[in-house]
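Good morning,

Both structures are done.
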Amino acid sequence: MSVSDPVADMLTKIRNASEANFEKVDISTSKLKLEIVKILKNEGFIKNFKKISQNGFNYIRIFLKYDDTNDPIIHGLSKISTPGRRVYSGYKRMPRVYNGFGTVIISTSVGVTTGRKAVEKKVGGELICSVW
């Protein structure tokens, strides 16, 4: 089945797996998805990830993170830009997610990064998603 927005599909798989208390989730790989997963790891929203190659298919296996009471660390994942409506922001008007407790992931001219790092580098770009 073809997917019109693979990043939104990835975010939905992660959201559903964390709500169902799954230990891990497998998603198909791409460069953009891999960069988003690296940011989720660096920001502490997931435990770890690894690239898997089976039968000629490449996957990213994401190990989800939970707190002491087995509640998911990821409370929400929200896609901002869609294929029909792209949303851009300059570094001066970068949105904040839950007053700084969340993270906005942005695609800039220097690569995929968080909103905080984009403001530090003084670059803007397309808002991909927000995580809290």
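Second structure follows.
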Amino acid sequence: MSNKRDDLVAKYAVDIKEKFDEEPDMDLLSKVAIGLGPAIYNVDSSKVSGGDEKELETVKKNYLIKKLGMKDSPKLMEAIKSVMNTYGSSNKNKYRAVVYYILCKHFDKASIY
């Protein structure tokens, strides 16, 4: 099982390098992936639909507010939309682990992991 996760984490790392032009912190990326549990193996739940407002709300509520302990503010959705834009609207494979990782780094919340 962990080999499959390692493969996914490697794939996420490539996205972080190519789409976000940054060198991924592999330790944090692994922890984010582990934190998502079985969701990363499910085709549907492993990705975030950038055009789906409800889904973006879910990322905000379940991840930024519940998991990272952020206070709700317009900044949260701005950050999520910024990640979606950087990921590229034409890109259908916006991996949840990558989105969460980038948001985690953006808000400097790596210590939560």
